Amino acid sequence: MEIFEQWESEIRGYSRAYPTVFASASNARQTDEAGKSYIDFFAGAGVLNFGHNNPHMKQAIIDFIQADGVAHSLDMSTTVKRSFISAFAETILKPRNMNYKMQFMGPTGTNAVEAALKLARRVTGRENIVAFSQGFHGMTLGSLACTANQYFRNAAGVPLGHVQHAPFESNVGGGLEGLATLRASYENSSSGLEAPAAFIVETIQAEGGVNVASESWLMALQNLAKDLGALLIIDEIQVGCGRTGSYFSFDKMGLDPDIICLAKGIGGFGTPLAMNLVKPEHDAHWQPGEHTGTFRGQGFSFVAGREALRYFEDDALMALTLERGAMISDRMTALAAQYPNVTARGKGMIQALDIQNGASSKAIARECFDKGLLVGPCGIDGQVIKLIPPLTIPDNDLEEGLQILERAVKTVMEARQ
Amino acid sequence: MEIFEQWESEIRGYSRAYPTVFASASNARQTDEAGKSYIDFFAGAGVLNFGHNNPHMKQAIIDFIQADGVAHSLDMSTTVKRSFISAFAETILKPRNMNYKMQFMGPTGTNAVEAALKLARRVTGRENIVAFSQGFHGMTLGSLACTANQYFRNAAGVPLGHVQHAPFESNVGGGLEGLATLRASYENSSSGLEAPAAFIVETIQAEGGVNVASESWLMALQNLAKDLGALLIIDEIQVGCGRTGSYFSFDKMGLDPDIICLAKGIGGFGTPLAMNLVKPEHDAHWQPGEHTGTFRGQGFSFVAGREALRYFEDDALMALTLERGAMISDRMTALAAQYPNVTARGKGMIQALDIQNGASSKAIARECFDKGLLVGPCGIDGQVIKLIPPLTIPDNDLEEGLQILERAVKTVMEARQ
Amino acid sequence: MEIFEQWESEIRGYSRAYPTVFASASNARQTDEAGKSYIDFFAGAGVLNFGHNNPHMKQAIIDFIQADGVAHSLDMSTTVKRSFISAFAETILKPRNMNYKMQFMGPTGTNAVEAALKLARRVTGRENIVAFSQGFHGMTLGSLACTANQYFRNAAGVPLGHVQHAPFESNVGGGLEGLATLRASYENSSSGLEAPAAFIVETIQAEGGVNVASESWLMALQNLAKDLGALLIIDEIQVGCGRTGSYFSFDKMGLDPDIICLAKGIGGFGTPLAMNLVKPEHDAHWQPGEHTGTFRGQGFSFVAGREALRYFEDDALMALTLERGAMISDRMTALAAQYPNVTARGKGMIQALDIQNGASSKAIARECFDKGLLVGPCGIDGQVIKLIPPLTIPDNDLEEGLQILERAVKTVMEARQ
Amino acid sequence: MEIFEQWESEIRGYSRAYPTVFASASNARQTDEAGKSYIDFFAGAGVLNFGHNNPHMKQAIIDFIQADGVAHSLDMSTTVKRSFISAFAETILKPRNMNYKMQFMGPTGTNAVEAALKLARRVTGRENIVAFSQGFHGMTLGSLACTANQYFRNAAGVPLGHVQHAPFESNVGGGLEGLATLRASYENSSSGLEAPAAFIVETIQAEGGVNVASESWLMALQNLAKDLGALLIIDEIQVGCGRTGSYFSFDKMGLDPDIICLAKGIGGFGTPLAMNLVKPEHDAHWQPGEHTGTFRGQGFSFVAGREALRYFEDDALMALTLERGAMISDRMTALAAQYPNVTARGKGMIQALDIQNGASSKAIARECFDKGLLVGPCGIDGQVIKLIPPLTIPDNDLEEGLQILERAVKTVMEARQ
Fold it and tell me: Could you say which residues form the signal peptide (chains A, B, C, D) (predicted)?
């Protein structure tokens, strides 16, 4: 650890929460250099839906390297990019009758959001974006303006403008009444507010505390956006790619977003990739190369990401995800019931235990770490324990992880009484 | 190509300039699926200093995968990250007596710049940044405000604030006089300008047209920054990592930047990585996790990047780079001399032929493509042909590439008369 | 009128609504050059609380001129300024136990608001201001950012930042629930909102449609401001100086604003003056001359404004104002009852008839003009007829004006059925 | 003075520099309540070109009051407004073949500038304004962004955006070279600068230190503006209305500004008035009432301002102004020659002695005050003594004032050696 303390920036965060050095990882387990094995309920903050070192992907990547595949291509055309695009169209878009263009950009979620914001502003000729409380959309200046958390915002060093924050469904002033207030404000020519270029929303606020928006609220939001001539941007970066039990978190809701931002899980293996799905009529507003990025064409991510899409060729993984999600939800609900103010919530295999107390939840996460389980606090002041294991986690790892968590909650909550 | 036309965003750029589908790549050659081989004088916009599919790196990556290495780790500590950090400190920093902290962020150059801007604003408590004409620093809103090119700026859709642009050394109003004007303005309490948080500069503006700043101008800029209590940020993203014949483009200049932004070449293999070198006294201003990013810990990049550092354990590659750079420079100078207004410039193995006419330079690039050479126009209106082959390019590929270029220039220039 | 059409800017507004040339004015009547007399229920948009050419003020001004009084003094001390300050302290502040500093600035309401915003930002070190829907605070860039009306905002030509608009009490999403939403947002560190420097509010939105805030809402707003460490700025520019039946519109409400903006009526005669009342602990943050203005020291306004203060040495005028206000209110309520959707509201001698239809209200105002009564539409799309006659209006003028209005409403509303 | 200390804001400035209470004023003299008489070389910061209590204006105002003239009219048409407009057209515009619309706004210079900026942005659809170092254009947020002085800018409390400052002719980096730098930057699509909506400039920077722009520089600036499709706004607020020996400071220069801002001297008597002269093709972009203001129609100012225009019906006053200006200039040049680093400059009856030392110049101003002369320091750190007596000053007052100044300079400069 000395090397890190001596040479790495003080900004390092997770390495403080998990003070060990990891040497290898396989499916839902990480092993540190001392040989201690950890069950991973964190999965790279939602990246590793298909586990660490997924064997199909490993083989595909090795084959790709050995064949001198094009690892880096900017936005030149390559055979592996074509395979990815083609598979995505066939497996994901066509079965849903979704007609979208795929835009690749610098391979980070924040870059996807920045590109979406640019396009929404271009299409509408408007500047303002509406984002929601607890929303997390990235760290670069454009997306950071949409991110709600003060800790991140304070690092900007300049005013974060051109974004208005409204209460998320679950907040005071939120719900359908909150959207009615927004609608009335935009319809009032003397409200001081002008119709926005876009609304950007996560259907489930993952970093924000696993707050799950209802279908009715999301539909009302979409209607508001359409009535105002504003775009609806769904940031699926953490909860897309199968996490909720279907490819998109909003499948079957009747939603028809203008732009869908994807990253994290889309490259499959943990290698970077980001992609926006953009309605063709909006996409037509782009001029060639207006939003570039050196690392756009990532061969490894196309290869592994193409493998990942095979999991969506049938319903097996998604059915299992729903089943296990229900089981985890039951366990968390039962656990929460034992403590005042503690609640459980989630959807599919993103589940959460809201401890309502940051110190306690951090103590629980630390206790889990000591006992061999990686979980991450999220939400305001880190009050919420988020569970996002790989969808491919073996049953016994899942069970063992849940037991470690249950015991850790008991240990900490009893000590705190 | 149909798949791309049907499904990929209209924003695609390089795939229009190079209308083929690449299937494989090795060192300085890319091969399309029709079997046509291209000599690569573009090298992934400066990423592939050590060639496509560098054999040392290939093997290291395969070994890493087969050993279930940790491919994705956010900013948790891993053994391969430690190896990279340690090698960078030993090979690059210590021999130069440079004392910097290494900060990893979302693996794109723009993300490195955004982090640098945040820190400079935090450290100084000031908002304004000075950037230079033709500067290119990225596409996300904070770095885009530093990027000078109108085409990119127009895509923002909101005013780009908190950045002042000054003429680069080679522009009208630039030079040492330009810096004297800036100094006088900052010393005048009634100039309307306030001392900035930082100056951000590329020692060689790669995208901006291969404009090479002189040592005296860079030293004057550094003195100005220090006198104003502003930070000096050097954006080494395209010209660092050995491109100019030494690891840093500013080696031996007496420069002592506060922050150095690295990306592109640092991961070695074309896999994403970005890193800032930050003076410890500035780095101490970061709070843990204030600038996060999902894809910070890229195992493949640490493994390949560590291999890349071996090229700097002795002088062989850098000596060769200088030698070949001089040869390319001679050839371009001789070529330029044959045409009015055409000039040559560059440093090490980033060399350029300034055609002074965008249509001609694009025609030359197209002619090169047809004849099997990849080169990219850069600079204002793409008037400048930039040559950045892999440093590891075989002699015969280099020679063949130069000859293709020389013929293409002749063909186009004669046709245009 | 030709001279105006030929030489005056196309921006002229009232001269289009009242297409005649006025030659003289006395108390509540204006006379045009054709000799036609108009009863004035508009009173210079709230400036002329004491009538046109108030005889006490006329004499005082003539005496002042004849004695070579100092008509213009920037912020130098003059005898007449001292008289004004002293009388204001004795007549207005001391009886209310109000301890405020008087700040004079460029003699426009917008300038008073700009100064208040600067000070609030200085005192708190924060940038954001909260203003309300329908709020009107001025036309210069700082105050315009607080003004809600889109028509005015559209003229800015730049984004209007650093101000957040919230629904006024009477709007959808307003009321005490609206303030609760604001409070929850500010208490949520992940709301995307930061505590503001100040809330700026009109107790009665005069330009905004004569929307009267309740005491309970204003007190809740004040409590919110205090809890957040934000300043409460009350913009009394149109409804202060006795308009509502007491000197301040918020007298006896238990409000304790940090800054009170005054203009319009304070100079008494229609000559420009603006003044902020500032709590001494805030005022101490000003450095000498930080907010200057050439026309700060207006002798005529000090002289006439001092005369105006005599009206507040006893209760006669305020008692009469309340009595007449009640009478006008009764008449408007009865009038409104005759038409669907038409409502009446107001306080003291600012009363309004809300026609709920801009075309109709403008037709009524035009019909009134033709019949010899000046009234001004206000509110969204000008749907509201605002009645703000001089407080000193003779009884018969008041009665005649009300009858003209009643007939005009009848005429227009019947024609529109 | 106690009343002021107790009740007036700490922001008061001139009353600290001139610590007495003025009771009356006539032409170029002010008298305090102790009976001490002061010669006024400050003239209300350039307002009182025709002296305090100009007898023609006094009589006209008294007649106006006694006839119940319309003192306050917003932008309704009045007979006195028509007289003013008509006289301005006949006396000033027509003889110069100038075709401009007159726009009246809130009666402060800052308001005139705000209106000009709005219109320039509207006409061009651009946001950025270019202003110059030492420029002074007002205190409200839009004009303050154009004002260069840091002391005033620091009071804003928010970033001042959408304005770029360039060095004025007399600054390092200024001159024709400075304009050439600007031109090159705007012609370079990769400069980071976009063509501005307007350039705003004072031909003589009065507050900024009496810096006199040359005709050739102003013409080059105008050419630059025209070539870029930007408007040229001349801020004549302090040096217009005859101050330089002709009505406009730029008369006979061949300049053809798009907007001319006037205030200060235009109302003649020290009562507020502001007016923009706007080219009709630009003025046509205004919608009615888009930039309003309560105190737009000031009867007193129209009446006195109309009297002021009589001074321009023949050449007498202007010829005298030039003659006296030359005399003052000679005296100041001779005075300056006695001291190292002290210089003199000016035009017409705005002349200055540049002491190059703020403490000394303030000491001189104080010594003058003690000896019965009012002069104001201006420029950076107040280093420049500005002389702007009424144009109507009696010869003996002018002579006596100059002698007081000469002695004060001697006293202070000798004491400082």
Answer: none
C162–A159 C-beta distance less than 8 A: yes
Which range marks the domain in which residue C44 is found? 2-54+315-416
As a whole number, mean pLDDT of residues D160-189 equals 97
pLDDT at D64: 98
Read off the pLDDT band of B374 (50, 70, 90).
very high
D237 and D101 in one domain? yes
- Per residue in D57-87, pLDDT tens? 999 999 999 999 999 999 999 999 999 999 9
Region C285-304: mean pLDDT is: 96
Instruction: Give the pLDDT mean for A6-34.
Output: 97
Same domain? For A71 and A209 the reply is yes
Distances (CA, A) of B388 to B246, B349, B404: 15, 6, 15
pLDDT at B224 over 90: yes
Claim to verify: residue A156 and residue A193 sit in the same structural domain: yes
Q: Is the ipTM reported for this complex over the cut 0.95?
A: yes
Q: Are residues A134 and A12 in the same domain?
A: no
Let me know whether B105 and B230 are in one domain: yes
CATH code: domain of residue C39? 3.90.1150.10
Chains touching chain A, criterion 3+ CB pairs below 8 Å: B, C, D
* Mean of all residue pLDDT scores within chain B: 97
Record the tokens describing residue C119, joined without a space: 């000070």
CB contact under 8 A, B290 and A44: no
DSSP β-ladder status, B350-354 and B343-347: antiparallel
Which amino acid does the sequence have at D204?
Answer: I
User: Is the domain of D119 the same as that of D137?
Assistant: yes
pLDDT surpasses 90 at A271? yes
For residues B251 and B240, give the distance between their C-alpha atoms in angstroms, rounded to a whole number.
Answer: 10
Quick check: helix, strand or coil at residue C133? coil
User: Of the residues C262, C286, C310, which one is the last residue of a structural domain?
Assistant: C310
Q: Tokens for C295, please give them.
A: 């026309």
In chain B, the number of structural domains is 2
CATH number at residue A204: 3.40.640.10
Q: How far is A205 from chain C (nearest CA, A)?
A: 12
Under DSSP, is residue C130 helix (H, G, I), strand (E, B) or coil?
Answer: strand
Whether residue A204 sits in one domain with residue A224 = yes
Q: Once rounded to an integer, what is the mean pLDDT over residues B318-330?
A: 98
Among B251, B279, B310, residue at a domain's last position = B310
Q: Which residue of B has its CA nearest to A76?
A: B15
Residue C1 pLDDT level (bands cut at 50, 70, 90): confident
Q: Check whether residue C280 and residue C151 sit in a common domain.
A: yes
| In the block, residue with structure tokens 């404009």 | B211
How does pLDDT run across D243-280, given as a tens digit for each residue? 999 999 999 999 999 999 999 999 999 999 999 999 99
Which of B249, B183, B250, B258 is CA-nearest to residue B220? B183
**Measured between CB atoms, which of C161, C189, C379 is closest to A161?**
C161
Q: Using the beta-carbon criterion (under 8 Å), do D158 and A158 form an inter-chain contact? A: no
Residue B248, number of CB atoms within 10 A of its CB? 24
Subunits close to D (at least 3 CB pairs below 8 A): A, B, C
Inter-chain CB proximity B158 and C158 less than 8 Å: no
Q: Tell me how far apart the alpha carbons of residues B162 and D161 are, in angstroms, rounded to a whole number.
A: 8
Q: Do C10 and D283 touch (CB under 8 A)?
A: yes
Ramachandran sector of residue A405 (left: φ over 0; alpha: ψ -120 to 50; beta: rest): alpha
CB pair distance less than 8 Å for C72 and D11: no
| Among the listed residues B287, B121, B81, B309, the one whose alpha carbon sits nearest the alpha carbon of residue A9 | B287
Interfacial residues of C (vs B; Cβ cutoff 8 Å): 158-159
Degrees to nearest 5, angle at CA A214 with A213 and A215 = 120
Q: How far is CA C91 from CA B310, C84, C98, C262, C268, in A?
A: 85, 10, 11, 16, 15
- Reduced to 3 states (helix: H, G, I; strand: E, B; else coil), residue A230 is coil
